[in-house]
Amino acid sequence: MSRLIPLLIALLTAAMPAVAAPLPAAVFEFELVDTSGEGRSPAQEQRIVATTEALRRELAETGLYAPLDLAPAAGRIDDHLSCEQCLLDIARDMGGQVAVIGKVNKISTLILSMDIVVRDLADGKVIARGTADIRGDNDRAWLRGMQWLVEHRIAPQGAVGEERAPR
Fold this sequence. Notes:
Blueprint: H1 4-15, E1 23-27, E2 31-34, H2 42-62, E3 65-67, H3 74-79, H4 84-93, E4 98-106, E5 111-120, E6 126-135, H5 139-154
Parallel strand pairs: 1-3, 1-4, 2-4
Antiparallel strand pairs: 4-5, 5-6
Helix pairs in contact: 2-5
């Protein structure tokens, strides 16, 4: 009987699926592209920061991504927010395996869309992407749009341990 226990443990361990380690992810601050003509407000700046922080938390909670601290590169990032290739270079320099880039397109106070793209830094290919229309330029709409994208496009249920492929 005592010989069977190590054998059973070995068999069970071999049968369990391997779970990939979370990918180091450079999660950049959302960029706001405002074509509404309304101008930027302090509330929008706070919303960008809050939504970005919530995105980092949501991604970490999926188990697929490990957001990196990008504070040491803050000056470089601020100078290159609209240059995706520049952000990918910064992400590589910071030790990332993937870059997560988010953008909010504001048409009016009511009509906005949110895009989140995850790129593999080894080859630049998109491994996950999602776009959602959001209604309302307010905290609740932005956060709910981001959460929906993470849950349904960026890291859908069951994605842990699966091959990461474009969705």
